[in-house]
Amino acid sequence: MIAIRNINQLLLATALLWFTAIVCPAQNPALEGYIKEGLQSNQALKQRQLDYAAQLSALKEAKGLFFPDLSVNARYTVAQGGRQIVFPVGDLLNPVYSTLNMLTASDLFPQIENESFAFYRPKEHETKVSLVQPIFNSDLIQNYRIRQNHAEIARIGVDRYQRELIKEITQAYYDYQKAHNLVFLADTSFTLVQENLRVSQRLFDNHKVTIDAVYRSESELSKVEVQRAQANSMLQASLAYFNFLLNRSLDAPIELIPVDPLPPEISLEEASMMAMQNRNELRQIQQYRQLNKHVTKLYRGGNYPGVFGVVDYGFQGEEYRFTQDDDFLLASLVMKWKLFQGNVNHQKVQQSKIEGEKLGELYSETEQQIRLEVINHYYALQAAYESVQSAGKQTETAQRAYELINRKYSEGQSSLLELIDARTSLTSAAANLFISQSEYFIRLADFEYAMGANGPENY
Structural domain tally of the chain? Predict the structure, then answer.
């Protein structure tokens, strides 16, 4: 007679997620711990966080441009040759001197030559401290606001990837759970088929069945071995991928806690409203629209003058000396105004306006896509829950049928074909239940992501 212990193992495996009481139906402590670990250790997330840190640094850089620019400039020059400056002192005074000599009948006023000197002094130095303070500069203002938008876009990008990572970890967890349960089911089925083969051989030896019953049991054993190999392959792949997301050793063990599937309690309208408020894609597009407005103002700002205050204090002369006789102080108010650039700024403004219109259309399209996504995942989740309910009932019925036929076969009142069919039905029903349960939680992760309800603040 087939060992009832093996059947009970199969019943227990299929009942774990369906009939037993759950410690916390709405939560999975093990999964929550893995999600926290993934949010801290995932390498791709760290890269996005570094991108955000770089944008914050660029924002501080843009803010620093509003402060004074203080610099020290020193120059020492040695010159030879170059232009000569002629001072016509002789041409100016000689006619006067000639007239005076004629009036006084003397040579008291001699003729003099024109003077000339080099334009470049043989030696010269200038050492000064320059302070430049922007007073009004539209480019600096808009550049700072643009950097603010870039930093916020990067921050939203980090939050968006965190939500995607939470979804990926959740789905990978339940993929592993599905594979784990299928492996357990395959191992249990293998034990049952081995027992069937032993019983068939015993019945054949007692001339109660023909040899084809033994051959059929051996064939079924080979099929189950293939199923075990496939289930183990799926298990190892899902284990490695889950650990990859958490940046752990790829063969690190995973703690599994069964959780009871619950029907969705939120309405479709509420889910859509939540998605419109929480989805990062919409917030990112809004930031891009703000960025576009500041870029437009940046191009328009080219039509306005920039005003700067400049103060220079230093020393200059032919000798490298720092005395009161050599120092100087200059204070200036400088205006820079680009009056004409071939209509370049106007065209840039027009291009920026067009980009703004495209972003408006993209926002509307994204809204529709998110609403469609919420609708699809909402009904997919409902269908997944119904599949779990149906699979549970099918498994319960298949279990009772297998017990009955197995008892008849042990007593020689049922054929091997009936027993194999009953076992195949039970195995298929149990596998379908495992798959349905895991698919429910995978669909739930999709639905929570579509609503924007799986934020890192929940962990």
Answer: 2
